Amino acid sequence: MADGFLTTHVLDTARGVPAAGLRITLDRIDGPGRERLAEVVTNHDGRTDGPILPKERFAPGLYELTFHAGDYLRGTGAPLTEPAFLDEVPIRFGMQAGHYHVPLLLSPFGYSTYRGS
């Protein structure tokens, strides 16, 4: 196994606060298959309490984080269309060795992400 790990955090840019209580899932993608590795909820700071993928479970490969934005946004009382413009936000990315930080900047009608540090 390679030495690496994965972290994230979510900021609610419409309200200017960390996105507390947002559910996130992590899958490893292998060809047509996928394996669920983690399901977490962000804390008061919009982060997870530990790495989503810790060093002991890390392997190079293709991964997908799914941010369950619709549920979170409904819970904040955001004015959403039905169906919501953003419901689940999947971000698929590859990882090798090292620390990968994949944050999400979220509003009801848009998002952005990047490889952070």
Fold and architecture overview:
The chain is mainly β and 117 residues long. It is 7% helix and 46% strand. Strand 9 (104-107) and strand 10 form a beta hairpin. The radius of gyration is 14 Å and the shape is globular. The mean pLDDT is 94.
Topology (SSEs and partners):
Layout: E1 4-7, E2 10-12, E3 17-18, E4 23-30, E5 33-41, E6 61-68, H1 69-76, E7 88-95, E8 98-101, E9 104-107, E10 110-113
Parallel strand pairs: 1-8, 2-9
Antiparallel strand pairs: 2-3, 4-5, 4-6, 6-7, 9-10
Comma- or semicolon-separated keywords:
1 helix; 117 residues; mainly beta; globular; 46% strand; four-stranded antiparallel β-sheet; 7% helix; 10 strands
Hey, roughly how much beta strand do the residues contain? over 45%
The description of the largest β-sheet is: 4 strands, mixed
Class from helix and strand fractions: mainly beta
**Share in helix:** under 10%
| Oligomeric grouping of the chains | single chain
Strands, total number: 10
Q: Write the element-wise H/E pattern from the N-terminal end onward.
A: EEEEEEHEEEE
* Basic shape: globular
Point out poorly predicted stretches: none
The total of helices stands at: 1
Q: What's the gyration radius in Å?
A: 14 Å
Mean pLDDT: 94
Cross-sheet strand order for the largest sheet:
3-2-9-10
Distance between the termini: 21 Å
Q: What is this structure, in a nutshell?
A:
The chain is mostly beta strands and 117 residues long.
